[in-house]
Structures are given as structure tokens and as C-alpha cells.
Write a structure and sequence with these properties.
single chain, alpha/beta, seven-stranded antiparallel β-sheet, 15 helices
């Protein structure tokens, strides 16, 4: 077993949080080693319009896969996660991590860039109410939000009805133009805003980590329609894009193919043992600081094992979510779009009048034409041939929606067994049923005022875990206990070990969380720089 000790810090995981911390540490003058289980980046789609590509006789291989991979995943999954490109990114995660599940669908990635290869690119800031359970004030994250937004590029509007909810003070590129029927829906909303909001529905433009203006070697969105499968123009941010740039930095050593097996703390500091997935050899790595950004479940496994915390359930947060479909009769019989944007075009918030107008759910609306017809047909309540014939004509007038609920309505646990298996048990709290009915009523009434019908039978609660927003197993606490983290992400009981991914989030409101995870990782890395710089200056003065 080889031992390496030549770096100031080791960062484990090349996802959004890990690469955010790496960049911050490198800018602070540190020598950093980045260990990643991934080896091959996700494939990029061709640089052409989806409509043109569909005319290629071999196009089915990209949409279905050489071995029909798209049909092998559960239908409850997002269509984005059923694409062949996504299957390549997600392959082998549960098996490598040794996960056993009960009532929970685990989704993860070992590829460079992690789940950002297949994320929806939604961006939202947590406000003071969202951070009420955190020992971190909202102002402490604001500078980090701005820094991250400038780096990754965010497009959207700061002047619509969702500006307060999504965050006002981050730099934004202009939003993309709305495609029909999203444009029709939004115009009707603006005409009938009071009635729609009285029904408990607020509508606005989506915030996406998608460029509408070029930035570096990344191009602006061309509305090619390929968003479901990735972006050949690199307009959609994903962490693997940053990895290519960071590898050129002289202060970074990048070592792919290293699966983090074991973590412990010795006299010389924290130590990490990895398994080389290519050669089967084991390596031991030491540094003054180890920052864990492996993803919530993998980070949790390492920490629980290092603390000897076996057979003890730990609370796992994830956001219950639902899907639905809207039909706009005014758009019926319109032609299929040849150019469009395939990610979220509009976003919404559902509020509760009984709770003083507080948000109780939030979600996004997408064009149905961005999703393959066979995906829609598989969800049609009836014989597939009926669904195909009906949906073929309805697609240009359909919008697909998803809605997230606060993670407090989830009831999941993670337990590390002495056999090394990570057992994930999933479930929802009883209050979710009432909340689901309340949100469905608001959506039905509010969208009806906008000229849209919530299709009967289209509302579905997603399988626990399929939201892929896992968090909260090592939460920040003002007075943390063993296995929790302090305000700087330091894991209590493991000196020199910091958790910087979503595992440290104490709560999850009804918002996309990746942007906040990145901002928090920047905040933690900045604090680590300051803490150890002061310590090293003091040691040298003795």
C-alpha cells in the first residue's frame, strides 16, 4: 500500500461541491489532490438540432441505446434519467457503494462531474426562512451565491413574481425566449394574475445554469432541443466542464479511478484509503485537511465507518415530488417545434392561504415535445396504442410539470451495518397526503385561470429517492454532537475531516438545492483556508 503526503488538502469527489472547493483552495494558494472514483466523462450529444438529428436512420441508438437501456429503468424515474447517456453516468453506483434499499430508489453517479451530468440545472437561493434551522446566517451565503453564479453562468429574470423566492441578488444573464405553449400560458397568467394568485399559484420565469451569452469556451444556448441528453455546445453547466480547466492548474493533482474505501485519523492527521478501480491496488493518502464531497450517501458511509457508528439509523432528507401534465386547448393542432429549449421554461410556487401565504411546494414546467413520445405513452392510463395516437396530436399543446415538497415531509433513514452494507429505508410522513391534495387543488384552479387543464390521472407521486435530492445525514449544528458537523463543516470526532456536500444541509425547503450546496462548499473552503492559514502562521512564529 503506497502512502502519499505531499498536499495541503485532499478533496474527495469531482462533483459540483468538490470542484467548487478545489477552485477556492487553489485560489488561496494551496496544493490540492483531487481523488475521484470516476474515469470517463459522460458523452456529449452531437452539435445539431434535435429535429435534424431525428432524420438520421441511426438516431435510435442515441435515444434508446445499443442495448435498449432506456427501457430498463423504472417508469417512475424522470425521462432524463432513462436516457442511454444518463444510464452510462449512473451505472454501478449502488453495487459499488454496497447499498440495500427498502421503499427507496437510490440514484447516484461515479462519473466525473457526478449527478451534474444529468441534473435539471435549476437554480434557487435559500433565504432567511429556509435557513432557520441552520447555524449559518443568510448573509454568510450571499457572497458565495454571487461567486458561484458568476463562475457557472445563470440565466433568468430578476423582475418577475418569483424573483423574491428564487433570490434577488445574484448576477443573471437574460432569460431564453419562451416557446409555445409556455408563452401562451405565461401571457394568460399576466392577464389574470390576481385570480391565479388567489388560488394559491405564483408563476414566473425559470432560473437555469444555462448560458444565454457566451462565457469562455462555452457557447450560448442555441435552443437545439437536445437538453434531455446533454449539451454539445456546453451551454448547460456541469462540473466535468470545470474539471477540464482545473486540471491545467499547477497546484492540482487529479487522480481518477480512486474509490474511497476507508477513512481514519492518525497522529499525522486524517488518512484515506482508496481502491484503484483499474488495478485493484490500495493507496493511502494523508494531508492536513480532507474534504469529503463524495455525495451524501458515500460521504455518510465513510464517516459512519470511521466513527464506528454501526447499526444506528441516521435521518436522511429528500424532497417528495410529484409529476403532472397540463393541456392548453388554445395550442391544439399547432405544428411540432423544430427549435426549442428542453429544460424548465416556467417555474411556479404553491402557497397556502391558511398558513399566511407561505410556500408549500414549488416546481417547473417543461415542453412535452422535449420528451420522446414513447416516454409519454408509457405513462398514459390506457392501452399504449391509444396513448400513442392521442398524444401524437396533443404533444404541441402539452406542458409537463414537476413539484417539490419540503424534505420535512420525508421519512428516510440510513444505517451502516457491520457487514459494510449501507441500508436505506424510505417513506413519507402521513401529512404528505393532505399536502398533495392541497397542492393539486391549487394547481388545478390556478392553471385553469391561465387557460390550461390539469389532465385527469396525470398527477403522480414519485417513488421515494427518485428526486435525487439527498441531504442532511451530517447536518450543520450550532452545538454539534458526534457524527454531526459544525458551522465550518468539521465532522465531530474526526479531526481535520470536513464534509462539504449536501450531507451537511440541516434542512431542504421546496427548492432546487445544488446551487446552495456549491455556495456552501465555497463558504466552507474559504473558512478552512482562513483557519489553517492562521494556524500555520502561528506555528512558524514559535
Amino acid at each position: 500500500m503506497s502512502i502519499s503526503t505531499q498536499w495541503d488538502a485532499i478533496v474527495v469527489g469531482a462533483g459540483p461541491a468538490g470542484l467548487t472547493a478545489v477552485r477556492t483552495l487553489l485560489e488561496g494558494g494551496w496544493r490540492v489532490c483531487l481523488l475521484d472514483a470516476g474515469e470517463r466523462p459522460a458523452p456529449l450529444p452531437p452539435r445539431m438540432d434535435l429535429w435534424v438529428f431525428r432524420q438520421n436512420p441511426c438516431h435510435w441508438r442515441w435515444f434508446l441505446g445499443d442495448r435498449l437501456e432506456s427501457f430498463r429503468t423504472p417508469e417512475q424515474d424522470s425521462p432524463k434519467l432513462r436516457t442511454p447517456a444518463a444510464q452510462a453516468v449512473l451505472a454501478g453506483y449502488s453495487e459499488t457503494l454496497g447499498i440495500e434499499t427498502e421503499g427507496f430508489r437510490v440514484i447516484g453517479s461515479l462519473a466525473p462531474g457526478g449527478l451534474s451530468n444529468v441534473w435539471g440545472a435549476g437554480v434557487a437561493c435559500f433565504d432567511g426562512a429556509d435557513l432557520s434551522d441552520w447555524p449559518v446566517p443568510a448573509d454568510a451565503l450571499q457572497e458565495a451565491y454571487i461567486t458561484v453564479a458568476r463562475r457557472i453562468g445563470v440565466s433568468g429574470s430578476a423582475e418577475d413574481d418569483l424573483a423574491d423566492y428564487l433570490g434577488l441578488r445574484i448576477p443573471l444573464q437574460p432569460p431564453l425566449p419562451l416557446d409555445p405553449p409556455a408563452d401562451v400560458l405565461y401571457r394568460r397568467y399576466q392577464q389574470h394574475r390576481r385570480r391565479v394568485q388567489a388560488a394559491g399559484l405564483i408563476l414566473g420565469r425559470s432560473r437555469n445554469a444555462v448560458l444565454t451569452e457566451p462565457m469562455g469556451r462555452r457557447e450560448a444556448c442555441t435552443r437545439c432541443g437536445f437538453c434531455l441528453y446533454g449539451c454539445g455546445y456546453q451551454a448547460i453547466y456541469h462540473a466535468a466542464l470545470e474539471l477540464e480547466d482545473l486540471r491545467r492548474h499547477p497546484g492540482l493533482t487529479y487522480v481518477p479511478g480512486q474509490w474511497a474505501e476507508r477513512l481514519d485519523v492518525g497522529l499525522e492527521g486524517p488518512r484515506l484509503t482508496t481502491l484503484d478501480r483499474r488495478t485493484g491496488e490500495r493507496h493511502r493518502w494523508t494531508a492536513s485537511v480532507i474534504l469529503l464531497a463524495c455525495g451524501t450517501l458515500a460521504t455518510t458511509r465513510l464517516v459512519l465507518d470511521a466513527l464506528g457508528s454501526f447499526d444506528r439509523p441516521v435521518r436522511l432528507l429528500s424532497q417528495p415530488s410529484m409529476g403532472f401534465a397540463l393541456w392548453l386547448p388554445k395550442c391544439l393542432a399547432q405544428p411540432y417545434l423544430e427549435r426549442f429549449f428542453g429544460l424548465a421554461q416556467l417555474s411556479f410556487v404553491v402557497t397556502s392561504r391558511a398558513e399566511g401565504g407561505l410556500p408549500i411546494a414549488a416546481g417547473n414546467l417543461f415542453l412535452a415535445c422535449a420528451v420522446p413520445l414513447w416516454e409519454l405513452t408509457s405513462r398514459f392510463p390506457g392501452p399504449p396504442i391509444w396513448g400513442y395516437r392521442l398524444l401524437r396530436d396533443l404533444v404541441p399543446s402539452l406542458l409537463l410539470g414537476n413539484a417539490l415538497f419540503a424534505a420535512s415531509l420525508s421519512d428516510h433513514t440510513v444505517t451502516l451495518g457491520r457487514d459494510g452494507k449501507l441500508k436505506v429505508r424510505g417513506g413519507y410522513r402521513p401529512e404528505l397526503s393532505q399536502r398533495l391534495r392541497q397542492v393539486t387543488r391549487s394547481l388545478r384552479r390556478g392553471f385553469r385561470y391561465c387557460g390550461a387543464w390539469l389532465l385527469p390521472g396525470s398527477v403522480r407521486l414519485v417513488t421515494p429517492g427518485a428526486d435525487v435530492h439527498y441531504a442532511g445525514t451530517l447536518p450543520h449544528r450550532r452545538f454539534p454532537r458526534l457524527g454531526e458537523t459544525d458551522v465550518m463543516g468539521a465532522v465531530v470526532g474526526l479531526e481535520g475531516v470536513y464534509a462539504i456536500d449536501a450531507s451537511v444541509l440541516p434542512s431542504l425547503p421546496a427548492k432546487a438545492h445544488t446551487f446552495t450546496v456549491m455556495a456552501n462548499a465555497h463558504r466552507i473552503a474559504t473558512a478552512v483556508l482562513q483557519r489553517y492559514r492562521r494556524a500555520w502562521v502561528y506555528q512558524r512564529s514559535l
